[in-house]
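Retro notes
What went well: the complex prediction finally ran end to end.
Inputs used:
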Amino acid sequence: MTAKPQATTPDRVVIFDTTLRDGEQAPGAAMTIPEKVQIAHQLARLGVDVIEAGFPISSPVQADGVRRIVQEVRGPVICALARAVDADIQAAAKALTGGEQTRIHTFIATSDIHLAAKFASDRYGRSMADKRKTVLSMAVDAVRQAKAFTADVEFSAEDAGRTEVEYLVEVIAAVVEAGATTINLPDTTGYCVPREYAAIFESVLERITLPEGVVLSTHCHDDLGLAVANSISGVLGGARQIECTINGIGERAGNASLEEIAMIFQVRGDRFGLATGIDARQLMATSRLVSTFSGFPVQPNKAIVGRNAFSHEAGIHQDGMLKSRETYEIMRAEDVGQSVESIRLGRHSGRHGLFARLQKLGVHVPDAEREAVYARFVTLADHKKEISDSDLHYLVNVPTSEAKTPHYALDFAAVAVGTDREPEAVVRVRHLRTERVIERKATGDGPIDALYRAIDHAVDERHELVNYTIRSVTEGADALGEVSVLIGIGGPCFAGRASSTDVILASAEAYVNALNAVAAHRAEEESVRFVGDGIMRAFGG
Ligand code: KIV
Ligand code: ZN
């Protein structure tokens, strides 16, 4: 494996994107491998320096995801996560094999709180001092092992934000000596406040002279809503890499949001004199892609990429804007890829209008997919008066179904409801192996219950509906509704998603997609998404 450490200059901040690793750890955000690959290509277009593509030891799907990204995505360094143990490092190295620029990111906890809980057994030492010695030597061994596979090795002191500084410095000095080229000091629990977090970096830099090319990194969680502020503060304290995610998705309250960080350095260049390699015009397209594939909506008032981030509602603001945009605007919508279009797209728009708008939005459509995108546009335009930019993002980024060879297709679904009757559904499900079409009816506690009972009859199985979510992915009364379902079969859960302007149809198709995932799981255990899989196990030790 060939690799080189990340080159930096003092005025450049390395953007390390962990949407596909820490971001995907957000409960319910699991993505399919093709979706991850598509996001990784978009991150490369966005200009991130490092993509943390996954945690290979945690599940075969994670390992495959990293492998595919290494094979297909060019530009950024591709990184894989590993605990400070041999098997993890081997798994990370294997998944990164053949990559042009690869990084192994190994981590171990350093705070007393974590040591007491996770290294409680006497085999790690009886006293805290002994446990600290064990952890330090595990960290050094892990970095040395990783160095055998790649020159670019990152070490994270998990829970650095609550680690005693003297010990933290000792660990950092040892792993740098062992060859770590990036030292990440995560505020794992989102506990720090900005001055405090900056002081950690300052203390480290006062006590250790880092060799040329070794970079300190921030990694902040948003439990107190301070992830972005802390990341910037870490940079003021001397860090030159920021770990962050698109839309701030991630464990619990999430991670520092990449789009906010990128725009802070762009808009307030005067204050920091630091730059990132991010092409801000790609931010909106990236945000929408991640929102679609993770199933996490972006709140309308979200900074930079929220729908309202550039709308001025109050009369006094509108008046000011008309006089001079500078009155209430510190950046322009078009700078971040939000469009300010007056031309409406609808049923009468042609290919040219569609692709010109997509290009303006920074949405990349591979040549091979143009006709399929146009066909989806025409179908949607038949159902919607006006196609919005959110519709367009969604049309291009249709979530992929995990099942390569589906077992079932929905031919027809209808539900009769009324104030004076029990909801009744009728469905026709095609069994693709036999081409038999089975029609079934059912009643239920509500329209969706009736629908899902009817589908269960048609496939002759009973499934537990673990979760059902419906959200409007675009605006207006004729908005596209996206339905996500999670079904259980007495053990693992399987996800299905679908979207349509008709929510009954989207609900039925999402359920059938989940059934296809179940069927594929039975046929080929490795290739399905097992929601809530080994990541949790790996973190649990
Ligand atoms: O939050 C954290 O400490 C992490 C590490 C694995 C880097 O995500
Ligand atoms: Zn984290």
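What we learned: The longest strand covers residues 408-416.
What to try next: split runs per interface for comparison.
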